[in-house]
Amino acid sequence: MSEITINIDGKEVKTKEGEFLLNAARANDIFIPAICYLTRCSPTLACRICLVEADGKRVYSCNAKAKDGMNITTKTPAIEAERRAIMEVYDVNHPLQCGVCDQSGECELQNYNLEIGVDAQHYAVKDIKREARDWGHIHYDPGLCIVCERCVTVCKDMIGDNSFKTVPRGGDALEVEYKENMPKDAYAMWNKLNKSLIGLTSGGEMLIVHRVESVPLFVR
Ligand code: FES
Question: Which residues of 67-95 are buried (b: 16+ CB within 10 A; e: fewer)?
């Protein structure tokens, strides 16, 4: 890959032709929010929060490739509104128990809510009962899961087994007014989130039991 120059938020940045914009930004200490992308894995394209403008068009920076002379803007009022709506959507029916949650203080959801300044909730849908499950050494709590699908990607790319997949969640559909009135990416992400949970592929439980002790399941 040849070396090229791109411009991110007015800063000239050297990178390789075809590098993902998110990686080019990270290598140059430029922050772009990104929940589902894992270094060394293929893009998951589940969270949509990494969106930026590249030469005036909206792209997902974890999946868009750098081209020489490209101009990237990581923040515009529309992008910030979209990211905020996405974070609010993640908070819909998420348990409000940060005060007693073991993950509090080391929680990306909490961090991004603070970073993006979410201080109110504009969206709602009736919740359903979501039972926790134990898969070998893994305890899965769908009440806490934001279906970022990192577990799906890391199993596929790092372990080489498709042990996890998204499965239907059930429950009420979103009200139609949301589709008309919400930022587009936030609605699309919520619509998918509201229909999905994580489940095992056929035989996945056996694979997890045997492999989880030797392979880190979550890598960044
Ligand atoms: S980090 Fe790009 S879609 Fe999630």
Answer: eeebebebeeeebeebbbbbbbbbebbbe
